[in-house]
Amino acid sequence: MPSSEPIIHIDSELCTGCRRCAAVCPVDAITGEPGEPQTVDAHRCVICGQCVQICTAYAPDHLEASDGLKAKRLQRGQLPSVREPLFAAYSTGQALEVKRALADSALFKVVQCAPAIRVSLAEEFGLPLGTLTPGKMAAALRRLKFDRIYDTNFGADVTIMEEGTELIGRVLSGERLPMFTSCCPAWVKHAETAAPELLDHLSSCKSPMQMVGALVKTYGAKQDGVDPAKIYSVAVMPCTCKEFECSREEMEVDGLREVDVVITTRELAHLIKDAGIDFVNLPDEPFDSPLGLYSGAGSIFGVTGGVMEAAIRTGYELVTHETIPNLQLDFVRGEEGLRTATVQLGELELKVAVVAGLKYVSAVLNQVKAGHCPYHFIEVMGCPEGCVSGGGQPKLLLETLRKTAYQARKSSVYRHDSHQQVRKSHENPAIIKLYKDFLGEPLGHVPHHLLHTTYQSREKNVSPISAGRKGGKL
Amino acid sequence: MNHAASNSLVIAEAAKCIGCKACELACFAVHNRDNGVGTAVGTVTMPVLPRLYVIRTDSFTMPVQCRQCENAPCAGACPVQAIRQQDGVIAIDAEACIGCKACALACPFGAISLYKAYSGGAELPQPLLQERRDSRLQRKTRITAYKCDLCRNTELPGGSAAGEGAGGRGSSAAAAQDRNPFPACVAVCPEKALRLVEAGTGRSRSLNREGGTF
Ligand code: SF4
Ligand code: SF4
Ligand code: SF4
Ligand code: SF4
């Protein structure tokens, strides 16, 4: 079980008060005087981890001798074998917990990996920025003794089925428009905090991670003939906020946590190194079926505009019953904070917007509040270039490499998509089978039970709602 | 660059420095590619050893680094001539250094530090001496002097994406990397507090091209 502590911290012993973290924080959650240690306002903080990515104030070596670093690593939930420097801004991790579970033979250990992991994990082992390694990643997870290697990309395909159907329904009925995506937990937490009156504009879809979590302990358990209560479900995410998401109260299926624990890309690298696995020389291995088979559309969820592009690929065909003429939708690709486009879906003129980075979302929220938002569908990702730039991704040593790194990870994601045989979610055979054998219709009874969720206001001074982490006080 | 005139140096403006230590980290990163230090923090298996130091007083912070003194007192103090004038910098030959600390004592700016020597990310043993560690006799680690070399012979790590399944083997061969256009500290400072000064001509080069004089 995740602890009840907050996830993002600033170590007051290490913080130099440079306030670079405050400059990247999209929600002004970092307070303090210049030159003094800063603090994180847990209520505002959306746990995106951008402060963790930018902080360069590291613990000097001499703390090692005094056991100070050892204590700090423990406090941060790091494996004792970790050698890398410690920085003032950090997120607490779950690698110790996962390592313990991996050694427990009574558990059936299932893991899923977000789309953005396979384009960045290799950086932790010295390979060039953005190196694409889905096969080595699967091989490494298998050597870590996971029983099933599944994929969040599969959940992304399911998300498209559900969210796409939901969108078309809402557009046809003209209800609760615009509809916002709900894959990014940082965005969801921000909406719950900053615009609770607009929560019914969010898609009711759980994130791909939670969808896979729910399916692992139902559909997957049945396929494997395992008791769902024995399944230990781990997710590897580029995101520091996913740990928060997985411990939200709503994220339960039949009394079990959907995802038991989340680790970041960096923590997966720690576990691989800890186990002495030679990542660079691993062979390419496949994911397990059925929850590890994905389409190109699923794999682009990791970049800004990806959910939109995937949704349009499927939405176009659902609405027009024709094949989409071009799969590469350049108008949603890009890096501006807010991009808009109009897409012709048969008769329907669909107006869409893509928001990359939470600091660009308030203008859109204000439009919706004022009742004159022109868009039907809005993708919001908390991080500046989507999950490839997430707070749990490999942390760069040089700020000058940030643009190059994000660019390389992005093109890797797109290359992965273009190499897939199936590039549309609704054409993924595993998805077709899932709906035929288990889920029924999108938005139907079973999907409603397993794949959709509700949101809660986090307005300050409103009832003492649990802020997601069980028993937590964020 | 006119070597015959005088050595260039990197100098900081205290009023601009916010004390983030990005310069220290970048310095370490570009000087330790041989130790497996790549683009990500996770590739680091050794302590961060910078060649400049952000100092902090009650009223300001700023990094201090080697001035590349024309008549370098450190070189004069070195008993084994491990410090030389080379391509416009005062350079320490780490192999020749005997770790005697004379240079560090002689430097008026405190710009030289002695650290353990690393090779392939692991401590480099001293060939002759042993010491008691964890109640066993073990090879003593080699110690050498480190100082700013204006990023001579360093490269920016990075490199572009390799192919599907990462056939590309990583760091050493990884792509033709750019030479540092500036010393790494100058390049990364978010406040542009550092600049490379060509002291001989009085010209200075900073990233924002303000062209301040020295
Ligand atoms: S947490 Fe890091 S980035 Fe933020 S003020 Fe402290 S040292 Fe600077
Ligand atoms: S995690 Fe994100 S929201 Fe929270 S303090 Fe850091 S930058 Fe701000
Ligand atoms: S954009 Fe991705 S990585 Fe960033 S907070 Fe949202 S889900 Fe997490
Ligand atoms: S990078 Fe610049 S601002 Fe940061 S400590 Fe160094 S000189 Fe100061």
Structure description:
Chain B: Residues 88-117 form the 4Fe-4S ferredoxin-type domain. Chain B: GO terms for molecular function: 4 iron, 4 sulfur cluster binding; metal ion binding. Chain B: Keywords: 4Fe-4S, Iron, Iron-sulfur, Metal-binding, Repeat. Chain B: This is 4Fe-4S dicluster domain-containing protein. Chain B: It comes from Paenibacillus sonchi. The complex is a heterodimer of chains A (474) and B (214). With 474 residues, chain A is an alpha/beta fold. Chain A has helices at 20-24, 50-54, 62-65, 68-75, 95-102, 134-143, 152-173, 185-194, 208-224, 242-246, 265-274, 296-299, 306-320, 361-370, 402-418, 429-439, 445-451, and strands at residues 8-10, 30-31, 39-40, 89-91, 108-113, 148-151, 179-180, 231-237, 252-253, 256-257, 261-264, 338-345, 348-356, 377-381. In chain A, strand 12 (338-345) and strand 13 form a beta hairpin. In chain A, 56% of the residues are buried. Mean pLDDT of chain A is 92; it is low at 462-474. Chain B is α+β, with helices and mostly antiparallel strands and 214 residues long. Chain B is 12% helix and 26% strand. In chain B, the strands form 6 sheets. Chain B has a 3-stranded antiparallel sheet with strand order 1-12-13. In chain B, strands 2-3 form a two-stranded antiparallel sheet. In chain B, strands 4-5 form a two-stranded antiparallel sheet. The radius of gyration of chain B is 19 Å and the shape is globular. Mean pLDDT of chain B is 83; it is low at 160-178 and 208-214. At the A-B interface, helix 6, helix 11 and helix 15 of A face helix 1 and helix 4 of B. One iron/sulfur cluster (SF4) binds at residues 12, 17-23, 54, 63, 189, 191, 193-194 of chain B.
| Net shape of chain B | globular
Mean pLDDT of chain A: 92
By DSSP, the count of extended strands of chain A is: 14
Radius of gyration of chain B: 19 Å
